[in-house]
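wait is this the right file?? whatever heres the structure
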């Protein structure tokens, strides 16, 4: 899998939402495109996490005239240049980018220990986590070559996610999390929307 992360400050939410919907509809039946998770934070930051089968598929699909036109339209609606992050180093947990989510939290930060970070979203850890936190329905972890990462966590709803955050975590798990990542920023998408391959 290959993931592309788009970020920008945008107060013209409805217009950007419409452009993203049109772009997603244009890709929905194209081979190599898997889907995307999109939304805005409370302070008007747009985040889009788009999934492709491979880097080659991403280059092919985003290099078309239509894709470039959609990006140009999106850029004009944003208050700053759209930041683009990419990664072929992707790990999925549970359902990955789940369309069932009512709330999505995106974590951006720096990798302190890549192997520990991948272990935290491994099948073994996912099974344990899902038993303790059933409101988590999926996640993707994308590690970039420069040592930064983006983790996208899908929850059933925000209320359950906030309640789950209050649970005490075992000391060894907390220590592993703290030693695996640094400089973490949390981007909460309270009304996310999704696109999937048809």
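ok assuming it is, sequence goes like this
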């Amino acid at each position: 899998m290959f993931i592309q992360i788009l970020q920008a400050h945008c107060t013209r939410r409805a217009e950007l939402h419409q452009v993203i919907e049109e772009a997603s509809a244009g890709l929905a039946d194209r081979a190599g495109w898997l889907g995307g998770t999109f939304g805005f934070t409370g302070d008007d930051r747009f985040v889009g996490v788009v999934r492709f089968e491979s880097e080659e598929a991403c280059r092919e699909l985003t290099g078309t005239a239509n894709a470039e036109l959609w990006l140009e339209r999106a850029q004009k609606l944003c208050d700053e240049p759209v930041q683009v992050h990419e990664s072929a180093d992707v790990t999925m947990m549970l359902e990955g980018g789940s369309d069932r989510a009512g709330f999505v939290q995106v974590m951006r930060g720096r990798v302190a220990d890549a192997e520990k970070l991948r272990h935290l979203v491994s099948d073994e850890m996912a099974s344990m986590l899902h038993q303790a936190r059933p409101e988590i329905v999926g996640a993707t972890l994308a590690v970039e070559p420069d040592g930064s990462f983006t983790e996208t966590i899908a929850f059933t709803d925000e209320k359950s996610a906030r309640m789950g955050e209050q649970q005490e975590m075992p000391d060894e798990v907390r220590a592993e999390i703290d030693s695996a990542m640094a400089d973490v920023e949390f981007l909460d998408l309270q009304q996310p929307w999704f696109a999937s391959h048809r």
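Residues 89-189 form a domain with the Alpha-Beta Plaits fold (CATH 3.30.70.100). so i think its the right one actually
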